[in-house]
Each structure stands twice: as C-alpha cells, then as structure tokens.
Write a structure and sequence with these properties.
This protein is 48% helix and 8% strand. By secondary structure, the chain is mainly α. A two-stranded parallel sheet has the order 1-2. The longest helix is centred in the N-terminal third of the chain and has 48 residues.
Length: 295
C-alpha cells in the first residue's frame, strides 16, 4: 500500500488502474445480467410452449389467444383468401369503448377499417356505402392490465383523417350535472393536454340534467388498516346522506325525492377487499346487494 508522497507521485497511474478495475467489474456485472436474462428468456419461452401445448391438447383458449388468432388472420400471407371473404362481408364497423383498445387489437381493426374506407375489393352496387364509427373517452381507460392504451384513440383519429373520417368531440353530457362536470374539468385539465371543457347539454333552453349533487373527497388512508378506514368512511358517508334525505332527481316522476339505498352504488376495480366494505355497510345497518357478475 502506497501512502504519502510516494502515492502522490503515482496519482495518475493509480487513477488509471482504478478506472480500469471499475470498467472490468462493470463488464462482469453486464455479462452476469446477460446470462441471467438469457436463462429467464429461455424459461419464459419454454413455459409458453408448454402452456400452448396443454391448451391445444384440451382445445382451450384464453382471452389473449382470440386476439392473437385474429391478428394472424389479418397479417399472415397465407390467410389472404380468408381476409378477402371477411372484407366482402363487413360493410360497417362500430368500435365502442375504444379507449380500452390495445396496439394488437388496433392492428386488427385498422386492417378492416382501411379496407372499408379505401373501397378496395369487389364492389356490390346494391349495397350502401361502407362506414366506420369509433367512440372512446380516454378518461375512462381502465384496462391497462390488458395492454389497453388510451393514446391509440388519438393516434387512430389522426391516421383515419387521410380517409376523410371526421373527428367529432362529445363534450356535452345528457346525464351528468354541471357540478360533477366542473370537478371532471378541474381534475383532467392538468392531466390531459388540450383537454376540452365538458358541459351539461342544453335541451329546449334548459339543462338536460338538474345542476344538483356534490363531490366528496375522502382523507388519504395510509395506515395498515387503510382498507378498513376507507370502507368505514364510505359507509358513514352513505348513511349520512340517507339520514339527511339528500334530494335526487327521479326521471320517472320528473322531480326530486329523498335518496334511497337503491340509488347508491360502490364501484371497485378489484373484488379483493369487497368483504371489508360489506362488513362496514352491515355495521351501519345499510341494505346492499352485490352485483358481481356485472361488475
């Protein structure tokens, strides 16, 4: 070990050696990571082949399999005949909830849409003009776990403009009060570039929905029992509204009436913690019904 003046005389040499050793260690780490990555890739591919073999053996399909199969149908060269027949039969394409479309799904829809709009293939003089109708709202995109990408909505609109497709904004709501829409505008205007302000539609000089309601934001629950706290807050809030006789607009009677349990709904992304919410509702003596099959 060199110290003092002897080390000072060899400063450049020592720094060069330390740099070389550092580069050597980095190369070793990179090599190790590459080896581990290669092993994991081979394991992943082997698992995929094994799972596909089991599904083939038992004639089973998963959600992704139907998408992948359609993609092969519309892209593989050997399937040109099948694509020709499909394009001759499909004259109108309607895609709803488009904000939950994945890149793979859009590749399939795009093939059909461009064929429709380009007017290629055999033309039936007795048929009406082919049409394409896409509806989506990027604010409502919730299927990221299925590779949905809300940005495809804007990308598709730009791509289809070359075919004369119109981009029509739907910023007027026929079922939401302005109080709620003001909250939506405030929340999303900072998240989405060029976010268009939403308004309640006007029908015959009056708002389609009475400007009633409120937006309540719960505290931020961060403790170990955060789920229990959130469930207790929701149950307490619903109970207080029922006790107050909070006015709601009833379309059937065309007027206001007090809030009833059947008017309330708790939306959840995952059913993991639903028993906790059920317990909180029961403790408050609130009647409820769990609609699992329809979400």
């Amino acid at each position: 070990t060199l110290r003092g003046k002897k080390r000072d005389l060899l400063t450049k040499e020592i720094e060069a050696i330390e740099e070389a050793l550092g580069q050597f260690r980095d190369q070793q780490r990179i090599q190790q990571l590459n080896e581990v990555g290669d092993i994991l890739t081979r394991l992943f591919n082997a698992f995929g082949r094994y799972r596909d073999a089991i599904k083939d053996r038992h004639a089973l399909l998963e959600f992704d399999d139907s998408t992948k199969g359609c993609y092969q149908l519309f892209t593989a060269p050997d399937n040109i005949g099948a694509r020709f027949l499909i394009h001759q039969q499909v004259k109108h394409l309607l895609l709803d909830e488009f904000q939950d479309t994945s890149s793979l799904q859009w590749a399939i829809f795009q093939s059909i849409a461009q064929e429709l709009l380009a007017g290629q293939g055999l033309i039936d003089q007795n048929s009406c003009k082919s049409t394409l109708f896409i509806v989506g709202d990027e604010k409502q995109s919730i299927y990221g776990f299925r590779e949905a990408d809300s940005r495809i909505l804007m990308s598709a609109a730009q791509q289809l403009q070359a075919f004369g497709v119109k981009d029509i904004p739907l910023n007027h709501s026929y079922r939401t009060s302005q109080i709620i829409l003001d909250f939506v505008n405030q929340s999303f205007s900072t998240l989405i570039t060029d976010f268009p302000l939403h308004q309640t539609a006007n029908v015959g000089g009056e708002a389609a929905v009475p400007n009633m309601g409120s937006v309540a934001i719960s505290p931020l629950f961060q403790e170990d029992d955060a789920v229990e706290q959130e469930a207790a807050f929701v149950a307490s809030y619903i109970d207080s509204l029922l006790q107050q006789g909070w006015p709601v607009f009833d379309k059937q009677i065309g007027g206001l009436r007090p809030l009833e349990p059947k008017d309330c709904a708790i939306l959840y992304r995952s059913s993991t913690h639903i028993p906790v919410f059920e317990t909180a509702l029961r403790e408050r003596g609130l009647e409820y019904r769990r609609e699992e099959k329809i979400g």
